[in-house]
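Q: Predict the bound structure with zinc ion.
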Amino acid sequence: MQIYEYNVPIPDAGFDSNAYLIKLENKESILVDTGPNAPQALDTLEATLRKAEVSWENIKHILVTHGHYDHFSFAAQIVERSGAQVWVHPADRKKLTIATENPFFVEAETVIPFLKKLGVQKNKITSLISEVVASERGFKPLSESYIRSLSNRTVLKFPGLTIKVIHTPGHTPGSCCFQLVEKGILFTGDTLLPQITPNAIFNIEGEERDQSLVRLQESLTKIRRLRASMAYPGHGKPILSIDPAINRQFTRMARRSEQVLRVLGAQGLSTFSIAKELFPSDSGRYHTWLALSETLGHMGWLRIQRRVRIRDDAGIVYWEAQ
Ligand SMILES: [Zn+2]
Ligand SMILES: [Zn+2]
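A: Predicted complex:
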């Protein structure tokens, strides 16, 4: 078995997404993520196939770590050429198949009240919508017929290779890590990254809107217990020591939580007001969305620790130190 890494620049983002080709002894190949549907993607993957000496038809499976377009949106083109099956956790499945999963297109009736509750003003909601819509252009939905569902502890057996699926929600509800059992290697998507702490993106629907960060922390603990020898992340260089990388993430999260409490002070603030204090520069592309996610994640974590409480005032949620 051999692993080939390739990187595709994410349009307008200034950084790359990683994808990996696992070539088995019989040349059958498995992709872990595909990269974004960017102009360079096709050339990059073709060069990787040449290097690995495999053809499009050898790609039998695509394992998707999570439903973010920079990790899977090139899959539709690969499937057209190879007929590969695409594996994803059911909680992220809709993100692959429905272009309109982008909540701003179809779920205005859910999204707008949600954003209002966070304290986002009416005029800001419109610009927030255009930020997200601009980021997701180039998305190509996949046909349902190619998609297979993964769940925690799904085991995929190949000649000479066993891949175990570990459901690691937090960054997205359907985030998964893939463990190459015989090698002790782990593919971590955006759940464990070498340099930055992944954003625990909030859910728009459901009871657990502010619990993404708590889920991410549980998932990191799950990863730690696997005792993998190394990890291939969704962005950046391979992680050669997993424990210190996880420790760094927990340290950063704890530091950020203290920062949130300082911002909060004695007064009650909305999620949006806290986010503006924490992330004052408004740099476009997903900025506000990510800032709100990060903030709400920390509020949820602090709520669980009983360090903050909620006050509802005219439909807006205010957080108060407890
Ligand atoms: Zn992601
Ligand atoms: Zn990513």
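A: The pocket of zinc ion (ligand 2) is lined by residues 17, 68, 70-71, 190, 234-235 (CB under 6 Å).
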